Amino acid sequence: MMRPNSHGLVELRDLAESSDFEDLVTLHLADPRSPVRELALVTDIEEMTSVGPDTLIMLTQEVARGGWMISAALRYAWERRACALIVPHQAFTGSVIDLAERLGVSLFTTDIDIRTLAIRTAIHVGVARADSLARLHRFATRVSLSADIPAALATISAELEGARVAVRLDGGAVRFSTPAEPHPHPGSTRVCVPLSSRPRPDHLVAETQDPERMRAEQVLAAASPTIRALLAEERLSETEASLPTLSVAALTGLITPGGAIDSVGSDVAAELGWSIDGDYFVVFFASSSQGRMGAAVRQLWNDVFGQLPLARIEDGWFGFVPSSDEHSRSGFVAELRSHRLRLQAFDLAAGVSDVLTDIEHAARGLREASLAARLATNEALSVPAIVEFSEITAEILPRVLPGPLAAQLASTLLPDLLADPATNELVDAVLAYLDHRGSVSSAAERLGVHRNTLQARLARAQQTGVSLSDPQSVLPMHLLLAALKRTRGRPAD
Fold this sequence. Notes:
- By secondary structure, this protein is an alpha/beta fold.
- The protein has helices spanning 12-17, 67-79, 94-103, 114-144, 149-159, 213-242, 248-252, 268-271, 294-305, 326-337, 340-345, 362-376, 403-413, 415-419, 423-435, 440-447, 451-463, 471-487, and strands at 10-11, 24-28, 35-36, 38-42, 55-59, 84-88, 106-110, 164-168, 174-177, 188-194, 203-209, 280-287, 311-313, 316-322, 348-352, 386-388.
- Helix 2 links the parallel strand 5 (55-59) and strand 6.
- The chain is elongated and about 100 Å long.
């Protein structure tokens, strides 16, 4: 009976050593641990061109006629990275076996009919893989019963014969881990499985032996749904414990007026577990005098939105409002606008998000509403006390970034730019270039300089660290430099 290896695949040594295949004669065994991923019964030599890596190739009597055909099949097997060749028994010359050794392709022969052997091998490989899948399912069931992340990691480590297992957060820090081995094996390798589809996801990591890499990937993938759920539960508990002191930045990832950036992930709002069904939007109230505005905000909220829940956090108040369609949302916003004078009298500003569809978008909606409320409180923008997120245009976004923070970020990210004697000229050149969508001629005309002069300034700006070639950094760079220009006492255009 052939047994699957640690990653559920039959190995060549199973064929060479199994009593079920005692009539299989080994002429050359290149790598006993080579996995058998596929089986190919070849009735025409041209079929060899379509086999894939780690394939066990079986030549029928019609193909394996003489040493020349077997030599050709060995070369095909080497080109296709097949693991072995089985041919009907015949008189073999030493040159054929030497060729198998030089190419690193295992070579077997047998007295029984090749088609019969193919059927027998396929049955054994299928049974081995089914057994592997069953063991993987039993493991997934065991790990799903874990009470917490350390217990789950201990179960994973036991399945991987004591390998060190950890949860590595998106910033690279290890949050949970099983104890490290006192003397790690020199051949160990790190296997990582992402815990989400986000650009920078958390990872489930295991340090195991290189031959066990595939098995480790399967085990980690089977355990990842449980780890993901336990990690969300852990974060939820932490969030609930600190909710009275959370700021808007902690929930949304926005920059606070004081300039601090909270590191809590953007999925916190979803993890809080608000019960939201169907379409909805978010309303956020901000005030510079929160301590005495609580009763006024709640009264206004009840007048407009009825008995829907209203939550208070350090930077303001927010609530989720069900909305069957855009018309329903417009009605609520119109009702809120009718209380504009009331808002202004209480020094309140309101932000309204776009309509969202499910709980997974709650964090985004909270960002939109809180950003709109911040704009409504920005005196320099001369905006009303109520701002809808859809009303925000790109032209006013640079003014949202606080000036002191812009200067602090620039001193950290672009020290060479600030040290350049022509900083103002370089900043103006970059902003004009980006404002005109990369047109050197239009930007030069706006600044009243020759295009060669502008190109020289842009080149100098890039030498100081300003990125103009990476699409993902262009908008952040524009926002930062526009805010920096305003901070240095020169109004942004």
